[in-house]
Amino acid sequence: MTERSEVSRPHLRLPREEDFRAEGHDVRVAARLGLLLGVAFGLCFVTGVLSHVAQHGSWWPTRPVNLYRVTQGVHVLSGIAAVPLLLAKLWSVYPRLFARPVVRSVGHALERVSLFVLIGAAFFQLATGMFNSAQAYPWLFRFVPTHYAVAWVAIGALLVHVAAKLPKIRDGLRRQVGRPTPGAAGLSRRGLLATSGFAALAAVVATAGATVPWLYRVSPLSWRAARGPQGLPINRSATAARVGRVGADWRLTVEWPGGRRELSRDQLAALPQHTVRLPIACVEGWSASAVWTGVVVADLLAAVGAPTGRVRVESLEAVGTYRESLLLPDHVRDRLTLLALGLNGEELSLDHGYPCRIIAATRPGVLQTKWVAVLRVLP
């Protein structure tokens, strides 16, 4: 009778933190990636708040004319740079998920909860921001208020995480990265840092042409960078806005407390015209400069006897979040705020806002109302 020899089976267990031996799983790498990611997140948050103020605030400066172009460009590009940095940062620290015990104290539990909130909010912000840049909205919630609210959640969770990890962050930054360990698996510490930095830089360069004109030729992934009708891109066409042919009976209505005046397009064209080169910059991050011709809004109000002040601009567009916009007093008085009739030496095309549109320095593109029907001076 032959005895069967027992075959030893490997003992199965969950991995532990010490099982991950790649050099990239090191506090020196995590601290430096965290610093880069913190800079990207900080820029994205600050410029995002500025974007919200520009769209919804009660004051926004009229100079310099490229202000919103720069702040919104930095907002979108810093978000793009954050994507590879976030992935690299998570890779460097994910072995800590397998540390035992899972929770060591109440403080440690709160730290872990804040970390998961931070990761979730960060991915939500970066993903929805990139969808917004592509003008794709595969969700049911309103993008702008939700994105803005979650930004505060993300920055709050980030501050809690930094406060909790400050001793380790200091230790990691003080220690030299050091030379690669012979025979170590995976990328070295320097290799991971270099790869992450290059990936972030490559992502920025590949997309920056949408807002930095001189990078257009080397930015293959630039969105909305291709020139549209009359040499300028469009976000929302007349067809999408359900604005059809504008007939000869169109009139611009100017209303103010105690007064009202209607003007035809020929009457607008007969008023003194002003030509200026101004950028138009959209929340998606693209921007372009163009030559605009039209009537200075302050001159138009003076010509019909209306006072200056806050002006509500109403569009022929029947529905839409931005069918109305508010011109703040500083913009109403500014000589660069036009009711534009022409673009790049031609009459406005319908897609660019015929019969007239607002163009004003530093205003977000969504507030540069097209197909204007009414200028209402508010009390």
From TrEMBL:
Q: Pfam families, from UniProt?
A: Oxidored_molyb (PF00174)
Q: Which InterPro entries match?
A: OxRdtase_Mopterin-bd_dom, OxRdtase_Mopterin-bd_sf
Please tell me whether the keyword DNA repair is annotated for this protein: no
Would you say which domain of life the source belongs to? Bacteria
Transmembrane portions of the chain: 33-54, 74-94, 115-134, 146-166, 192-216
List each copy of the Oxidoreductase molybdopterin-binding domain by range.
248-377
Q: Which residues form a coiled coil?
A: none
| Annotated keywords | Membrane, Transmembrane, Transmembrane helix
Q: What is this protein called?
A: Molybdopterin-binding protein
Source organism: Polymorphospora rubra
